[in-house]
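Dear colleague,

Following up on yesterday's call, I've attached the two folding results inline so they're easy to grep. Please treat them as preliminary; we haven't cross-checked anything against experimental data yet. The first protein's sequence and structure tokens come first.
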Amino acid sequence: MKNLILNLKKIFLGNNHFWKQREVLESIMFGLLFFSGSIMINHYTSIYVDRSAGNHVTDILLDNLPIANVNFIVNEVAWVFIWLVIVLLLVKPQRIPYVLKNIAFFIFIRSIFISLTHLGPIPNHSYLSKHDILSGIASGNDMFFSGHTGMPFLLALIFWENKVLRYVFLFGSFLFGASMILGHLHYSIDVVAAFFITHSLYRIGRHLFRADHKLFYETGMEENAV
């Protein structure tokens, strides 16, 4: 672990030329502000959704599948993917603006979606630890669309040119999507729709953040290279 931290620090400091570019630093600062703002909006939207939650509805998959305990996947495995993203950004900080802004845009748009239709949560669902990874910013009533499914799919699209990362994030997206349904944590429409909505957000993000997209691919991200 100590060697890993030292190697990351060495790589991080090895990009001094990057940190001296004012335009890039301003882009990162905007990304951080956008990300912080989207998290705040999502938090207050979740409070509103929690107060406005209606009745639950029937679902063809949930009505025919037993409840599975997916707490480990939703929490511990999710942390693995979070740390993977952090490492990928530290290794090549030129990726930070584009990735950060796309994630912030995803969270912001999803906040709008969850505020529109007030479906109630599924009454019986998988146990989730009190230290749930999203407990601080989401109420559990934020149904449509599934963030657990959409976020890794967004990362798969962003890192699509790298086959290893593409399949890692695609695997994560399908794993979390299946867990949401098997754990009765989301309706099946939340999971299925997440793929289509996320792809649309990715395409929009490419146009909104064109300069950051160009910088992302100037990192020398060779195929099959992390």
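Below is the second protein, in the same order (sequence, then structure):
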Amino acid sequence: MPTNLRITTFNVENLFNRYAFLDLPWEQRHYEQFVEAIGVVSIASRQGDLVPYAITEIQRNNTALAILDAHPDILAVQEIENIYTLRNFNDSYLDNYCDRVLSIDGNDLRGIDIGLLINRERTDIEIVNIRTHVEDAEEGKTVIRHAIPNKGYLVTGAIFSRDCLEVDLAIGGKTLTLLINHFKAQDGRKASDTKRTEQAQRVAELVNAAVQAKKIPIVLGDLNAPPKHKSLEALIKDSPLRNPVDSLPKDQRWTHYYVPTKEVSQLDYVLPHKSVKVVSTEIVRKGLTTKCKQYTGPRYPTIGPQHTEASDHCPTSVVLEI
């Protein structure tokens, strides 16, 4: 019998477990400075300034509300610090909504990783295999990690800026291959577009490999470019995948709000293989900053103009019939 599966992707925007003493100037702090959460402490905001813990707690509660409103069976997240942070968030803010939590350290200098969580009520979903692609090298290059004092490490020669976390799930007699990503950011540089193109092309190769192995590939995550951007052609234009967000009205096909330019766009994707039936597509926007005027619907009560928003991204869900 067919079963419906709700798959959600959400860039939770800097879900860190880092603290900094208020009396230590920003430029003198180590990049990763862990202290026990006692005494006078604060958490650095997205912009790098200090935000009181109470405000950070409000922000992360709104992140959790957005996730719970999405009701995911499978949740892919981006911009988490590590599996320790993700497990704590699942326990403290989601009331252990998920009972399986996965993450592998990636290549990002900032220390942001990607992860996967599975709803504890979906006991019919079995994790069959996990593969990381942090060591996938650019053509003619070798992956090298350079230690930088007080800042972690810099990775050169790797295709993926973070990782392409590949997870096989067994459900309803089928094997789904999730390819969870956080592509190179848009910064106006040609090199960044080239890197994102290489990442999309490599993921397309993994999609084809999954199809050949009789699995159902699903690419999901923050691909950091709109659907018509040339860097995503291997996954959007020349691909056996579909973008279900295209089924929404044109003015609703966005998942991200960029504060500096006040623009919205689709950066977040759940791209299932075309052989799978799409039941519905939903985007939760109630956690966006009040600065976002493109959204006029209800917001969570504690959402304000800055520091309290769930994220600058929206949980994006696709319900599939498996």
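For the second protein, one point worth flagging: The chain has a mean pLDDT of 90.

Best wishes,
A.L.
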